[in-house]
Amino acid sequence: MIGTTKQPSVEAGREKRLNFGKHLRAAAPRSDHAKWDIRGPMDPLPLVGEWSAGRIVGLVVIRHGRMADSPLSFFRGSAVVMARDLAKTSVSGLRVQACNDAHLLNFGLFASPERNLLFDINDFDETLDGPWEWDLKRMAVSFVLTGREHGICGADCKDTISAAARAYRKSMLRYCGMSPLDIWYSRVNEKAVRKVFASDIRKAVDDRLDKAHANGPTQAQSWLVTNNGDRPKLADDPPLTRHAGHLLSRHKLVELLGHYRESLPEDHRQVFDRYELVDHVFKAVGLESIGTRCFVVYLSGPEGAPLFLQIKEATPSIIDRIGGCRWKGNQGRRTVLGQRLIQGTTDIFLGWSHDEGRDYYLRQFRDMKGTLAPEATSSEVLLDYAKLCGRTLARAHARSGDACSIAGYLGADDAFERALSKFAGAYASQVERDFDAFRKAAIAGKFPTSKG
Predict the structure, then answer these.
(1) CA gap 114, 34 in Å, rounded
(2) 4-18 confidence digits (pLDDT tens)
């Protein structure tokens, strides 16, 4: 059940807020977070079908094909199912600006405006205020599914979840002792990233960091842009990347960029105005977003300096879809404002726009972005990465929620960690059952699939 508890103000003092959080355990014991009962007669597959409604039909089959690859892939593409399930679980009543899709692949590397490399949450399509527990539970389940996919034993998966929850709990207590301004300026930088991982895998981590540093507009230009005579343009790679004027004409794009410009701070507009539009393509990305309208825009500045912007369609958050509409207005604006609350720092070109009844948000494409998520992983690597994500999620929540009340609720022992580990294992098994049902339905033709 979504709970709302009136949190004490910062002026109430640290100890009073810690005690307030502790007293919330009477109504919502930490042991309650271990509970997951099979949902009963509710069939999750119709929700998956509804989630694909309104998307580009030719790409929905590719999305379903990717979801049929593994339980983790299915989990990534069916966030609405877990949101519906979590709405029935116990919560403390403390709220934050939640990501609402905080699985382990939605954390990553990106550049700050000062050109420093940071680690943070990097997907905000579903962001809205909500229970902090939901983000932790979604993250925890994603680690269990990843561990099982790589043959990591149940005991090690349990240790991984405990490590993530412990990092979150200890970080939240640390933020409780900081001023709101100090929390706001807190970052997870390269030094912090290196410190988390064991020394024997630092070389692999350094390689990921170096790759992200090199992943800028000039590097992107080398594979995104081709020459048509003397005129450069973005390259086609159908079906996921193609010129598609019927989806967004150049005339409509110019209008969209005009609305977008107004969403930028005035000083950032001055930078944006130094670039001219060259070309744009439809470009499907990831798994969760496939089938929505996503574009890459190529702009050129003085001496041909490239700037690539990504335009992503913004649809209502899954929280609105399961609990009635609470956000009124442009969904791109919701996404951007949520990102500014959650992320340590944001892209100077982050903004929003609209076109013919569709809302969008815009950001730089391929600007020192990268991943630390383990691919071929071991229990040790997964555990270290879980610590990093737990710490990062706590910082994100502390920016908008009351760190002391959450820290007080979590307490000084491992009660919540044990509960979260139990929930994550049980819900991961639920996801595996749902995945089996989805795959059978796909084979039967109810969810047409394509590798694309």
Answers:
(1) 42
(2) 666 777 677 899 999
